[in-house]
Amino acid sequence: MPKAPQGRPPARSDAIFDRVSEDFARPDGRAERQAMFNPAEIRALLIEAARARSALTYGALLNLLGHTFTRPLMRHLCKVLDRIDEDGRAASEPGLAVLVVRQSDGLPGQGWFVSRTGACDDLPLEWEGADARRYTEARQADAFAYWESP
User: In this structure, is residue 5 part of a structural domain?
Assistant: First the structure.
């Protein structure tokens, strides 16, 4: 089970949380708190997974966060993962969301590929199959190497 990471501190985790909180404000102005995820906690879990050179399924990550898998929670989690990666890119870090994969085939979901269309020129044309697997494994290797314990 991933533990809190040692070494590099979380980059701008408060900024991520503030922006994600804004995204999930309810029409009446109150924040939707019951389903909120702490981006710093998720980032720490993903860094620990990278140091262990392993991926987590969406369901396993939700379980580590104390939730059972539901589509609405997964969609919310994916938004947080996107924000973590956006901040990582700004800090010249490799993505961490690539470490969260589907149980069925070990690849990130279609949304992961689609959300990177404008930011990455080397994306495969399909988000399933051999090209997607090679691309995913290469991005995971980048994360593993970057977060390797010194």
Answer: no
Residue 57 Cα distances to 11, 16, 34, 38, 125, angstroms: 23, 22, 22, 18, 23
Angle at 82 between CA 76 and CA 86, to 5 degrees: 150
Q: Is 89 a domain residue?
A: yes
Q: Classify residue 1: in a domain, yes or no.
A: no
Length of the chain equals 150
Whether 18 shows a pLDDT value over 70: the answer reads no
Residue among 137, 46, 132, 49 at smallest CA distance from 84: 46
- In eight-state DSSP terms, residue 150 is -
pLDDT tens-digit series, residues 54-108:
999 999 999 999 999 998 998 899 999 999 999 998 999 999 999 999 999 999 9
Nearest Cα to 46, choosing from 87, 12, 85, 91?
85
The answer as to whether 2 is a domain residue is: no
Give the separation between CA 49 and CA 39, rounded to whole angstroms: 15
Domain that holds residue 125: 13-147
* Cβ neighbours around 80 below 10 Å, total: 24
